[in-house]
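To fix ideas, we close by showing one paired sequence and structure record:
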Amino acid sequence: MAKLTDSQLIVLANAAARADGVASPPQEMGRAAAVKVGSSLVARKLMRESRSKPGMPVWREAEGKNISLVITRAGRDAIKVGDDAKPSDLSDREAMEAGAAVKTEKASAAVQPEQHSIGAAPRTGSKQALIVEMLSKEPGATIDALIKATGWLPHTTRAALTGLRKRGFALERIPQTPGASLYRIANRSCPTRA
Protein backbone atom coordinates (compact mmCIF):
# COMPACT_ATOMS: atom_id res chain seq x y z
CA MET A 1 0.00 0.00 0.00
CA ALA A 2 1.22 3.49 -0.80
CA LYS A 3 2.32 5.78 1.99
CA LEU A 4 -0.41 7.68 3.82
CA THR A 5 -0.15 11.44 4.31
CA ASP A 6 -0.31 13.09 7.72
CA SER A 7 -3.82 14.34 6.98
CA GLN A 8 -5.00 10.87 5.98
CA LEU A 9 -3.50 9.35 9.14
CA ILE A 10 -5.18 11.97 11.34
CA VAL A 11 -8.58 11.40 9.73
CA LEU A 12 -8.26 7.60 10.04
CA ALA A 13 -7.06 7.79 13.64
CA ASN A 14 -9.88 10.15 14.66
CA ALA A 15 -12.47 7.91 13.01
CA ALA A 16 -11.03 4.80 14.71
CA ALA A 17 -11.26 6.58 18.07
CA ARG A 18 -15.03 7.05 17.70
CA ALA A 19 -17.45 4.24 18.64
CA ASP A 20 -19.34 4.62 15.36
CA GLY A 21 -16.15 4.90 13.23
CA VAL A 22 -17.32 8.12 11.57
CA ALA A 23 -14.69 10.65 10.55
CA SER A 24 -14.98 14.35 11.26
CA PRO A 25 -12.85 16.83 9.32
CA PRO A 26 -10.04 18.33 11.44
CA GLN A 27 -10.81 21.94 12.36
CA GLU A 28 -7.58 23.25 10.81
CA MET A 29 -8.29 21.53 7.48
CA GLY A 30 -10.02 23.60 4.80
CA ARG A 31 -13.16 22.37 3.06
CA ALA A 32 -11.44 21.65 -0.27
CA ALA A 33 -8.60 19.81 1.45
CA ALA A 34 -11.08 17.74 3.46
CA VAL A 35 -12.91 16.71 0.29
CA LYS A 36 -9.62 15.73 -1.37
CA VAL A 37 -8.42 13.72 1.65
CA GLY A 38 -11.81 12.03 1.97
CA SER A 39 -11.99 11.09 -1.71
CA SER A 40 -8.46 9.65 -1.60
CA LEU A 41 -9.34 7.50 1.42
CA VAL A 42 -12.54 6.29 -0.26
CA ALA A 43 -10.61 5.48 -3.46
CA ARG A 44 -8.16 3.40 -1.42
CA LYS A 45 -11.09 1.67 0.31
CA LEU A 46 -9.85 2.80 3.72
CA MET A 47 -13.15 4.64 4.30
CA ARG A 48 -16.60 4.42 2.77
CA GLU A 49 -19.20 7.08 2.18
CA SER A 50 -22.51 6.79 3.99
CA ARG A 51 -25.58 9.00 4.10
CA SER A 52 -25.39 11.00 7.33
CA LYS A 53 -27.82 10.22 10.12
CA PRO A 54 -28.80 12.75 12.76
CA GLY A 55 -25.91 13.44 15.12
CA MET A 56 -23.25 12.13 12.73
CA PRO A 57 -20.44 14.44 11.59
CA VAL A 58 -20.99 15.57 8.01
CA TRP A 59 -17.94 15.22 5.76
CA ARG A 60 -19.43 16.81 2.64
CA GLU A 61 -22.69 17.61 0.92
CA ALA A 62 -23.67 16.09 -2.44
CA GLU A 63 -26.89 16.84 -4.30
CA GLY A 64 -28.47 18.26 -1.17
CA LYS A 65 -27.61 15.18 0.92
CA ASN A 66 -25.18 15.04 3.80
CA ILE A 67 -22.42 12.45 3.40
CA SER A 68 -20.32 10.99 6.21
CA LEU A 69 -17.14 8.92 6.00
CA VAL A 70 -16.94 5.66 7.96
CA ILE A 71 -13.67 3.81 8.50
CA THR A 72 -13.44 0.34 6.96
CA ARG A 73 -11.62 -2.78 8.15
CA ALA A 74 -8.81 -1.93 5.72
CA GLY A 75 -8.61 1.56 7.25
CA ARG A 76 -8.29 0.11 10.74
CA ASP A 77 -5.63 -2.31 9.50
CA ALA A 78 -3.72 0.58 7.90
CA ILE A 79 -3.31 2.26 11.28
CA LYS A 80 -3.13 -1.04 13.18
CA VAL A 81 -6.31 -0.62 15.22
CA GLY A 82 -8.77 -3.47 15.76
CA ASP A 83 -12.56 -3.39 15.16
CA ASP A 84 -13.22 -3.86 18.87
CA ALA A 85 -11.44 -0.65 19.87
CA LYS A 86 -13.75 1.59 21.90
CA PRO A 87 -13.32 5.29 22.56
CA SER A 88 -12.27 4.43 26.10
CA ASP A 89 -9.62 2.06 24.72
CA LEU A 90 -8.24 4.57 22.23
CA SER A 91 -7.95 8.18 23.29
CA ASP A 92 -7.33 10.95 20.75
CA ARG A 93 -3.69 11.04 21.76
CA GLU A 94 -3.31 7.27 21.33
CA ALA A 95 -5.07 7.45 17.97
CA MET A 96 -2.61 10.10 16.81
CA GLU A 97 0.31 8.04 18.10
CA ALA A 98 -1.00 4.97 16.24
CA GLY A 99 -1.06 6.99 13.03
CA ALA A 100 2.41 8.37 13.70
CA ALA A 101 3.74 4.85 14.39
CA VAL A 102 2.50 3.65 11.01
CA LYS A 103 4.16 6.61 9.31
CA THR A 104 7.44 6.01 11.17
CA GLU A 105 7.49 2.33 10.19
CA LYS A 106 6.92 3.18 6.55
CA ALA A 107 9.58 5.90 6.60
CA SER A 108 12.18 3.57 8.10
CA ALA A 109 11.37 0.92 5.50
CA ALA A 110 11.80 3.39 2.65
CA VAL A 111 14.75 2.87 0.36
CA GLN A 112 17.62 5.15 1.26
CA PRO A 113 19.15 7.16 -1.59
CA GLU A 114 22.44 5.97 -3.00
CA GLN A 115 25.41 7.47 -1.20
CA HIS A 116 28.04 9.14 -3.38
CA SER A 117 31.59 8.91 -2.18
CA ILE A 118 33.25 12.19 -1.46
CA GLY A 119 36.58 12.58 -3.15
CA ALA A 120 35.78 10.25 -6.04
CA ALA A 121 36.94 11.34 -9.46
CA PRO A 122 34.33 11.61 -12.19
CA ARG A 123 33.78 8.68 -14.53
CA THR A 124 36.35 8.53 -17.34
CA GLY A 125 35.09 10.02 -20.58
CA SER A 126 32.33 12.04 -18.93
CA LYS A 127 31.90 15.80 -19.24
CA GLN A 128 32.88 16.20 -15.59
CA ALA A 129 36.09 14.30 -16.31
CA LEU A 130 36.71 16.74 -19.18
CA ILE A 131 36.22 19.67 -16.78
CA VAL A 132 38.65 18.12 -14.27
CA GLU A 133 41.20 17.64 -17.05
CA MET A 134 40.85 21.24 -18.22
CA LEU A 135 41.07 22.60 -14.67
CA SER A 136 44.10 20.42 -13.85
CA LYS A 137 46.25 22.13 -16.48
CA GLU A 138 48.51 24.91 -15.22
CA PRO A 139 46.68 27.91 -16.68
CA GLY A 140 43.23 26.58 -15.74
CA ALA A 141 40.11 27.44 -17.73
CA THR A 142 37.48 30.15 -17.94
CA ILE A 143 33.76 29.51 -17.60
CA ASP A 144 33.38 30.32 -21.30
CA ALA A 145 35.97 27.68 -22.25
CA LEU A 146 34.23 25.10 -20.05
CA ILE A 147 30.85 26.00 -21.58
CA LYS A 148 32.24 25.61 -25.09
CA ALA A 149 33.90 22.26 -24.28
CA THR A 150 30.84 20.72 -22.58
CA GLY A 151 27.96 22.39 -24.39
CA TRP A 152 26.37 23.18 -21.03
CA LEU A 153 24.64 26.41 -20.07
CA PRO A 154 26.55 28.77 -17.75
CA HIS A 155 24.53 27.89 -14.64
CA THR A 156 25.06 24.16 -15.27
CA THR A 157 28.79 24.69 -15.65
CA ARG A 158 28.97 26.64 -12.38
CA ALA A 159 26.95 23.91 -10.67
CA ALA A 160 29.45 21.32 -11.92
CA LEU A 161 32.25 23.37 -10.33
CA THR A 162 30.32 23.40 -7.07
CA GLY A 163 29.89 19.63 -7.34
CA LEU A 164 33.64 19.23 -7.74
CA ARG A 165 34.21 21.33 -4.62
CA LYS A 166 31.83 19.06 -2.70
CA ARG A 167 33.78 16.03 -3.91
CA GLY A 168 36.93 17.43 -2.34
CA PHE A 169 38.61 19.20 -5.24
CA ALA A 170 40.24 22.47 -4.17
CA LEU A 171 39.29 24.94 -6.88
CA GLU A 172 41.01 28.30 -7.22
CA ARG A 173 39.33 31.29 -8.80
CA ILE A 174 41.79 33.73 -10.29
CA PRO A 175 40.20 37.07 -11.26
CA GLN A 176 41.14 38.26 -14.75
CA THR A 177 39.53 41.07 -16.69
CA PRO A 178 36.28 42.41 -15.24
CA GLY A 179 33.60 39.76 -15.57
CA ALA A 180 36.03 36.92 -16.39
CA SER A 181 37.88 34.57 -14.09
CA LEU A 182 40.18 31.59 -14.49
CA TYR A 183 39.40 28.46 -12.52
CA ARG A 184 41.86 25.69 -11.77
CA ILE A 185 42.37 22.82 -9.38
CA ALA A 186 44.78 24.00 -6.68
CA ASN A 187 46.02 20.67 -5.40
CA ARG A 188 47.53 18.34 -7.96
CA SER A 189 46.75 15.27 -5.87
CA CYS A 190 43.22 14.95 -7.23
CA PRO A 191 41.12 11.96 -6.31
CA THR A 192 41.39 9.16 -8.84
CA ARG A 193 38.78 6.65 -9.85
CA ALA A 194 39.58 3.12 -8.77
About this structure: Residues 142 and 182 are 5 Å apart (CA to CA). The longest helix spans residues 92-109. The radius of gyration is 29 Å. The mean pLDDT is 78.
